[in-house]
Every structure is written in C-alpha cells, then in structure tokens.
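Cont'd.
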Amino acid sequence: MSQRDNVIKHSSENPFESMKKRFDIAAKTIGLDESDYHVLIAPQKTVIVNIPVTMDDGKVKVFEGFRVVHNANLGPSKGGIRYSMDVHLDEVRALAAWMTWKCAVVGIPYGGGKGGIKCDPRSMSKGELERLTRSYTDMMVDVFGPDKDIPAPDMGTGPQEMAWLMDEYSKLVGKSSPAVVTGKPIVLGGSLGRVEATGRGVMVSTRAALAKMGINPVGTTCAVQGFGNVGSISAKLLAMQGLKILAISDVSGAYYNPEGINIEAAIAFRDNNNGTLEGFKDGKKISNAELLELDVTVLVPAAMEDQITEENANRIKAKLIVEGANGPTSASADDILNKKGVLVVPDILANAGGVTVSYFEWVQNRLGYYWTEERVYRRADRVMKTAFEGVYAAAQKYNIPMRIAAYCVAIQRVADVEKLRGKFGL
Ligand code: NAD
C-alpha cells in the first residue's frame, strides 16, 4: 500500500475541469471538429456498483465502486483501481481520460480507464480486502477482460489485490487469464523492471530534454520532490547520469545539501527507517515549498498533484521541470511557467514509463514468454525516447508548450483511429 495514503491531499481544481482545460487548448490547436470533440471528451462507459461485503464481525457492509472506460479506440482500456475514502466519480473520470492521453502519447495500443472503491483499506483486514476485491471483480466481470479493460494498482492497492482480481476473474471465465490485470507479483506473471519503470522513464525524459537544451547532464543540479517509488528511483537514476541531486523530500520535509546528496545512502536510510526520511542527516532540513523554489536547473515533482500553482510558479527557478507525479502543476500555473521560458515535460509523457512496462507485462502474459530485465529496459527506453521526440517535434511545429503538444499528439491519434473505425461505441 502506498505511503501517499498517509498524507493530506491539497485542495485541487476539479480534476476533470483541469484535464478539460488542456484538452480544449489542444483541440483548438489541431482544429478538432466539433463532433469529434464531443465524442472524445465524454467517457464511453461508466459503471457504478454497490458491493456487499461480509465483514469480520459478521455484519454486511456495502461499498460503492466505480469503473470508467474513457476511450477504447486504440485498444482495450487500461488504468488502475484506487481504494480510498476520497474516491468519487469526477476524479475517476478525470483519471480515466488522463490514461487515454497517456497511452496514446507513448503509442501503446491501449485506451484509458480507471476504477475505484470508496473504502479505507487501512482499517480493513486482509480477509475483508480480499472479499471486497473478489466481489468487485464479480460485479465487473463483463467490463474487465484482457481484450476489453485491464486494471492495475493505484493508490491503496498493490500486487496482492491484483493477484486476487486475476484469480477471481480466471475462475469466472474458466481459464487462467493473467493478462486481465497488470502489476501482479512476479511469480504470477508480473514483469521484471516494472518497479523501476516510471523513474526510469523520468530519467530518459530528463536526458532527452537536457540534450535539446544543450545542457550536459554531468554536474547539472536537480531537486526531487517525493521519495517514494517514482521520486527515489528517478533521483537514483539521474544521479547515475551525473546530475547532482541537491535536494530530496518526502512527507516529513525536504533535505538540502549544496554539495549533492548521496541517493543510494538516502534510499538505504529510508528503507531502514520505516519508509521515511525523517531524521535524515545528509542535508539541511527545509520545507517542501522551499525545495520547489531552489536554484537548480532541473526540478522533478514526484509526490502528488497541485504542487506548482499560480501562487508559487513565479518563484520557480528551475529551467526544466519533469513531471514524475500526475498533475503536479495546476492548469493555472501553466501560463506563468511558459512565460518564464521553463521547459515542462508533462506528466502524461514523463511518467508514462510505468504504463509502458504494464503493457509489456500484458504482452509477456499473452506470449507466455518472459523477458529479461535488460530487454524490458531497452524496449521501454526506446518507447519513451520516441514519444519524447514526437512531442518535442509537435511543440516546435505549432510553437506551443510540450504539455499542449503532448495532448495534441494524443488527441490526434485517438481522433484518427475514431475516423477509421467510425463512431466506436464499445
Ligand atoms: P509513493 O506513495 O511511493 O510515494 C509518494 C512520495 O511522496 C512519498 O515519499 C511521500 O512521503 C511523498 N509525499 C507525499 N505528499 C508529499 C508532499 N506534500 N510533499 C512532499 N512529499 C510528499 O507514490 P509513487 O508511486 O511514487 O507516486 C508518486 C506520484 O507519481 C503520484 O502522483 C502518482 O500518481 C504518480 N505516478 C506513479 C507511477 C508509478 O508507477 N508508481 C506511475 C505514474 C505516475
């Protein structure tokens, strides 16, 4: 279960509105016609279920669950399942749309989906979580499928929930179906390299962006916000590329060392310290807000949404922002960063390494043949590099920021396929 569950979420713009703002600008840029606009913005399928679960005390509790398929033009829809008390339909719809654009921008044959159950997984026993996951799968059996809709972990879920889902689905369809879900434990068909995939994609994107800016990565300064899966692996791989990581942070605060932080040592510290950087001594303690405003060349927000807003965007000194997190920059901060000439590699591109390796997991499950870590890395790096170049070229062509260019590339791909297929209604 992810650490993000332990932190208070910042208030945010309505997530669907935030996605739509960027979608609208991109749609205008590529001249998307009005009917395509309406088809592409609306989720194709929304399923709401009430899931009865017998709790350990014998009483039955009913949980609300959702699955949204935003768009399945490019292939089966792909997206995580979130267990949280904050889950609501608007958020699930926004996240599903984000997945459509993310898969399209990196050119993998998937549409976008997302699911969630309104529950507090930390207060539930393992048995209760298992019964909840199996019942949700039973109720979604007509939605899920290796060629229809493929879930994955998200906040509050992990490999164990995916194993239950895979097992339950396999029983229901009467055959082993590992490809119905990704993010499984390795022994059940998970992919090598999945844990590092998102951080690795952030590193590849950063390298590609620095090359465009004519900046040698060796000695280039960097700050990384968030030290979970994405933040710590991005920091480690960037340090291996020669960048000097001046600051790291987690929910306990930020740690700044002008000489550069030893990232391997910081990871070891966190792993022996209940997963937190609290008490980390290789740096002066500063706040997360101060970290964002440090005088560094590269900033990697890899914690959570809405960290760079219209309130602090003007004080950002980094020349390059690579968005490891989903939605770390609010739509209202985009213009400020653009005016300052900051190059932003947007989330739907920068953190797409994760879904790319999830796609590889699905491919391996269907092949029944498993790749080495080296092969996974090589292929994922190639997907990320090609996607970066495509988005960068679109940004140059239309003279627009990379975020809007990423949306343009993605929307165009989905719209082109829609034209070829006709109005696809699932
Ligand atoms: P995680 O739970 O492993 O780590 C989150 C980290 O952020 C933790 O170190 C936590 O302490 C820290 N954090 C939380 N709130 C913070 C705050 N206000 N200030 C500073 N640090 C804070 O999560 P993760 O998997 O690394 O995901 C991080 C972000 O990346 C999320 O936005 C997630 O949606 C996105 N993302 C993750 C993946 C993936 O493969 N894990 C893929 C794509 C996008």
